[in-house]
């Protein structure tokens, strides 16, 4: 028994707060108001424990204490507060925590990115930098809904995130490389000999039998652009669609190119 809240928000912003009320407040007075607050997540979702404790204390003070880390939108979702708590919460969030509300409604939603170069050697561009700079550039569009519908950016450092990125945004920026996949032929031999675990050992809990480079890599290449010449692995890079499969299976032997 919830009803849509209409326009509930903080002064100067048209997004970031999603208004909700119980339609039977006399039965459930504790949740008469139950607005959701979207707080912009940091790029790559890195937090210090201190920052998390600060956020939790703030939400215990002004809200229900119920959270969702993170929503499908990427934001920190703080569920359940009353209208009169919104402005004091927003003041403390922006002044004491240095954090901001995210997007909601028909605006630019909080841009999101994979952790990119901060931890991942496969990232083909600096996803955090792109996400941060566009978030700063489009502050007006994030906070003041002016579009006919929601709009989302997502920044993925490589095609491993392509499905999530495309399904969950309107503009997905997916890193790739122009030159050839880097091949370490000595490491290819180690995989073929079974000395290196396929997929970084991710599936090693079960017995899949001996590693078979034809079955697990070459025959699964979607563009059929890989083959063996003796013990050498060859790739016709102009046919490669950069799907990442072979790289994921043999990460010590194959890496994205250097012209990213
Ligand atoms: C009239 C009542 C409600 C309506 C119409 C409503 C509608 C929506 C809509 C349209 C979304 C966005 C889905 C999207 O990402 O496209 C959403 C997200 C969400 N809602 Fe509700 N909702 C209501 C009440 C509630 C209540 C009472 C709760 C929890 C107690 C709740 C929890 C959530 C959560 C956790 C999300 C995900 C947020 C995110 O992914 O960013 N909603 N809701
Ligand atoms: C057996 C019990 C449950 C199952 C099998 C289940 C399953 C799922 C699945 C499959 C998703 C989608 C994940 C994704 O692809 O993004 C999901 C999302 C979610 N579930 Fe559950 N769930 C269960 C119980 C609950 C309960 C009890 C709550 C809250 C009280 C809850 C809250 C949510 C929320 C808020 C999301 C959305 C997260 C987001 O915003 O991305 N779930 N759940
Ligand atoms: S999407 Fe690619 S670059 Fe980003 S974290 Fe995943 S594997 Fe690394
Ligand atoms: S990245 Fe994909 S398309 Fe390119 S060679 Fe590897 S498996 Fe084939």
UniProtKB/TrEMBL annotation:
GO terms for molecular function: 4 iron, 4 sulfur cluster binding; dissimilatory sulfite reductase (NADH) activity; heme binding; metal ion binding. PROSITE patterns: 4FE4S_FER_2. InterPro entries: 4Fe4S_Fe-S-bd, DsrA, Nit/Sulf_reduc_fer-like_dom_sf, NO2/SO3_Rdtase_4Fe4S_dom, NO2/SO3_Rdtase_4Fe4S_sf. The keyword Metal-binding applies. It comes from the Bacteria. Residues 231-259 form the 4Fe-4S ferredoxin-type domain. NCBIfam families: dsrA (TIGR02064). This is Dissimilatory sulfite reductase subunit A. It comes from uncultured sulfate-reducing bacterium.
